[in-house]
Design a protein that fits this description.
Helix content is 38%, strand content 18%. By secondary structure, it is an alpha/beta fold. The strands form 3 sheets. Strands 3-2-1-4-5-6-12-9 form an 8-stranded mixed sheet, with helices on both faces. The protein has a two-stranded antiparallel ribbon with strand order 7-8. It has a two-stranded antiparallel ribbon with strand order 10-11. Helix 1 packs parallel to helix 11 and helix 5 packs across helix 7. The chain binds beta-D-ribofuranose and calcium ion.
C-alpha cells in the first residue's frame, strides 16, 4: 500500500485555505494529522472557528490548535476585503459542537515534531508566525521537519503591494526565520496560483459532483470569486492554497526550480518581497524549490478527485 504523506496544515481560513483542508482531509494519499491556525485572513478567533466549521461540516475528526494572534514584529493585517467579515463568508454552517484543542499551536508543533520520526511535512497556507515561533522556541524541531511546502510569496508582482504577497507581508520576520532554517522548502507563489483561476464553469463542474464537499466548494468559491473580481478585476479567483496539497498528492502538477530565495524585512516599500533568484544572478547556494509552472488541467482534476473522496 502507498504510504500516506503525514502533514500538519498551518492555515488561516480563508476560502482557499478551506479548500486546502477539504483536499487534505479527503484524499487517501494524505494523512492530515492536525490543523494549526494563525491570524491572517481574519483574526485568530475567526480563523479558528472557520477551521472547525469546515471540519465539522465535512465530518473530519481532525484536531484544531489555535496559535499566534499577532505577527512577530509588525502590526497585524487582515484580508477582510477578500474573505469577508467572518473570514469565510458565503457558506452557512450549523452551530459548532466541536471545540479547539487546549494546547497552543506553537507548543503543539514543538511537542509533535520532537516526538516524531522526522516524517512530518508542514504545509503553511497563512502567515508563518506559528512555525517561525516554534523554530525559535525549540530549534531542535528544525531537523525533525521533513519539508515545508507553503503558499506565499511571488517572484513576479505581489498582491498586497507591488513587491509582496499577503502571507509573507503579514509576517515577513517569521518567513525570514523559516527561509533561513535549512529545512527543505517548496514555495507555491502567486506566479503559479494566478494560473489556476476558478472560473464559473469550474465552480459548476465541481458542483456537479453533487455531494457535501462540492456544495461547500461552490458556496466558498461564489463569494471568493465575487471579491476577487471587485479587488483585482478577475472573473475567477486564484485558488492559491490548494496548490500545496495538489503538489503533495501529485508532485508532477508543478514545475519546480531549485534556487536561492530570501525575504526582504528591512525595506518599507518592499517589505515582505520574496527574492527568488530564478536566473542565479547572485551565485548563492540554492535553498528552496520555487514553483515556476503548474499543469492547470491536472490541478482541477486533482481538486475534483478530492471532492469525490467524500461520501455524501
Ligand atoms: C494568500 O493570502 C490569503 O488571502 C489566501 O488565503 C492565500 O493564502 C494569497 O495571497
Ligand atoms: Ca491562506
Amino acid at each position: 500500500m502507498m504510504e500516506k504523506t503525514k502533514i500538519i496544515l498551518d492555515c488561516d481560513p480563508g476560502h482557499d485555505d478551506a479548500v486546502a483542508i477539504l483536499m487534505a482531509g479527503g484524499h487517501p494519499a494524505i494523512d492530515l494529522q492536525a490543523i494549526t491556525v494563525v491570524s491572517g485572513n481574519q483574526t485568530l478567533e475567526k480563523t479558528a472557528v472557520n477551521a472547525m466549521n469546515v471540519c465539522q461540516y465535512l465530518g473530519l475528526d481532525i484536531p484544531v490548535y489555535a496559535g499566534c494572534s499577532e505577527p512577530m514584529v509588525r502590526k497585524k493585517i487582515i484580508a477582510g476585503d477578500i474573505h469577508g467579515e467572518t473570514g469565510l463568508d458565503g457558506p452557512e454552517f450549523d452551530p459548532l459542537t466541536r471545540t479547539l484543542e487546549k494546547e497552543h499551536a506553537v507548543t503543539f508543533l514543538t511537542r509533535k515534531l520532537m516526538e516524531s520520526d522526522g516524517d512530518i511535512t508542514i504545509v503553511i497556507t497563512g502567515p508563518m508566525t506559528n512555525v517561525g515561533m516554534a523554530m525559535r522556541m525549540e530549534p531542535r524541531i528544525i531537523p525533525k521537519i521533513k519539508q515545508i511546502v507553503f503558499m506565499g510569496g511571488a517572484y513576479t508582482n505581489g498582491n498586497i503591494t507591488p513587491a509582496a504577497e499577503f502571507n509573507i507581508a503579514a509576517d515577513a520576520e517569521a518567513a525570514y526565520v523559516v527561509f533561513n532554517s535549512g529545512v527543505p522548502i517548496t514555495m507555491c507563489g502567486l506566479d503559479i496560483t494566478r494560473k489556476v483561476l476558478c472560473y464559473p464553469e469550474i465552480v459548476e463542474r465541481m458542483e456537479r459532483v453533487g455531494n457535501k464537499a462540492s456544495r461547500l466548494f461552490g458556496d466558498l468559491m461564489r463569494f471568493f470569486c465575487k471579491t476577487q473580481k471587485e479587488v483585482f478585476g478577475w472573473e475567477g479567483g486564484p485558488l492559491h492554497d490548494p496548490t500545496t496539497i495538489a503538489y503533495l498528492i501529485d508532485p508532477s502538477v508543478l514545475t519546480l526550480k531549485y534556487v536561492h530565495g530570501s525575504v526582504e524585512i528591512r525595506s518599507e516599500e518592499s517589505y515582505g518581497r520574496t527574492n527568488c533568484d530564478i536566473f542565479d544572478y547572485m551565485k548563492k547556494e540554492p535553498n528552496m524549490n520555487v514553483a515556476v509552472d503548474i499543469d492547470v488541467e491536472k490541478f482541477w482534476n486533482l481538486v475534483e478527485t478530492c471532492i469525490k473522496c467524500y461520501q455524501n
